[in-house]
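Researcher: Go.
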Amino acid sequence: MSNTFYKQTDDMLERFDLVTERISTIQDDKELPEKLQKFFNQVSDYIMSVLPVMRKAINGQLDARSLEECRQDADAIFAIFDNSRYEQSFLCPTYAVAELGNQVGGPLSALFYKLTDITRAAFAGRTDIFTIYCELFVQIYGECQLESDDKFRRKCIIDALYSFEHDYCNLFVSERIISMIEPDYNFYTNIIMKSDLFNDKYLYRYGMYVGENELKIAAHLRSLPHEEVVAMARTYVEGYIKGFETTGKDISKKETVCVEAPVGFELMTREAIRLFHDAGLAATTRFGGTTSRDLYSTVPNKQCVYDHKYDKAYVWDKGLADRILEVTKNTYEKHKEEASVHGGPAVIMTFGEIPFEPKNKEANAKYTEKQDELNVYYMSEASQITNQYIKGEERSFTIIAYPIPEIGDKFEEIFNETVAINNMDYELYKSIQQHIIDVLDKGEKVHVTGRGDNHTDITVQLHHLDDLAHQTNFENCVADVNIPVGEVFTSPVLEGTNGVLHVTQVYLGELGYRNLEMKFEDGKVVDYTCSNFDSEEENKKYIFDNVLFKHETLPIGEFAIGTNTRAFVMGQKYGIADKLPILIAEKTGPHFAVGDTCYSHAEDVPMYNPDGKECIARDNSCSILRKSDMSKAYFNCHTDVTIPYYELGDIIVITADGDEIPVIRHGRFVVPGTEELNLVLDQNI
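Model: Structure:
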């Protein structure tokens, strides 16, 4: 698979040969204390396990491998992530600190984790990336030999990591941007479009982990009639196009779309890329690896990823943040024409993995309070730069989700039901949801309560409608940017929105939460807790890091009522409610999002429902600050928390005169015209 973006050079090949030759001799060295030498030996072993793939790529031999050779290469490389082996390796910060001490254990474990990126480099034939990682390793090895005190060794290690991030961010940061907007960055696209997708060999060409999920989903898609796969792709592509239409954005200005998809879905992804091409959009694809965006696969060890989540803390400071922002700005400026015609992402998500509740470990890197503040600053600045070149008021997106085999023995049934849910009747739901909106628009507030073990009790303040004939507070969301159909939503007025949101169990961003509770005053989080850990301090830190994303508080950016009762029943019938992605879970009950509004960076773009009414609830008292201070307007996060129907009590509209109009009573819709939504619930009690 060729890559027109990267060209091999003799100079880089010479550096590659020199550094890999040096690493091959490390096992013979006896210069360091035994345990420290053991670390460098283990890492050099890992590099040597990847090196054969790099050499095959250089010689153009990777595509000639047999399926068995592909599996052998993958087994050798990814063995380090096996649970039993990980806990006893220096890749695990806890083990590294126990063996090497507090001074150097953590930073060296972070180095090891960073070096695992050479796998991506090897399979892509990127001798430049492979070489600079190896040179970093050899540099730190040499400096550890020069210093005999761990305090000074720590400084050398961190200084080297800092210099690496600073000096090479021009490569890594710019490439992330260019690969999103430039179709000629085509290595991964070529795998999808040119491989024999009926031979599992292609799965091993990315350099990502290939497990049972990837193998079985590829096999399942092969078993489907071709027209069904095309239909899945068409739903996905049409959702993207509808997203532009429903938001009044001109898709004819756009030339590229970034396709984000899981490994194993290539039969569908290939058809989607062809359909995008027919619609005048060239697809871009880029590497994601262990993230659920871009091209990605199952994470071989989630605890490992969690353990290294904050490794950047070893080097993160204002100088590095500003350097990365500078490179981001310069890259966009250099490629501003390509950026201006980029339409945004089209995402295929997966769900069904066993919910993951991480273990907090003392040895893991942690941000300081100052670094937390820096993260907020950096995300705000980076978002503003991106929005300057890929304008929020002109771009769109779509997201669709499918289960993976890990979901259980009834995978095929669940998959087929998900396909059906993704293709539910657009017109039917448009009509049903309009009945709900008509009632909601009569109110100035909405009161939401839980039942049973759920003690939600929150009142949502709505925007004032000056012209009921032409204005609405709620968007009638059918299948466009968020597939499947099934919600009406608004951006509440923060002032006057007060109360408690509680769910007994929820799965957010691949992390599980038990008894998640957040208290709001004037629409902002003032307190929060959960019951994941024994100590309240750990529970609060877990939410602070992963729901508030290190903000001291966040506003409610969205209040919505999910109407897809069929999706809810699927979750209950198959016992997979805790595995549904937020994309589907948010349609299975009312939900509240903390963070930015649904109209982030596009608040000034008029939004109209199918009935012609304008959705005027696009701003709140935070987002409106963009007119005076952009850094205070956005939080660069939006996390939905859904109350399932079986935990839901009532949703009551309160009018200006104090009248109460029910939308839901005891978890059932009571608005005339919504009876269809209850049928599936009542039939599956």
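Model: DSSP finds 23 helices and 21 strands in the chain.
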